[in-house]
Amino acid sequence: MSDEATTPAKPVLRVVKGDLTPEELAALVAVVAARNAAAAHAASRTRKRPRSEWGHPARAHRTPLRVGPGQWRRSAWS
Question: For residue range 42-57, what is the model confidence (pLDDT) as tens digits?
Answer without folding.
Answer: 777 666 777 777 777 7
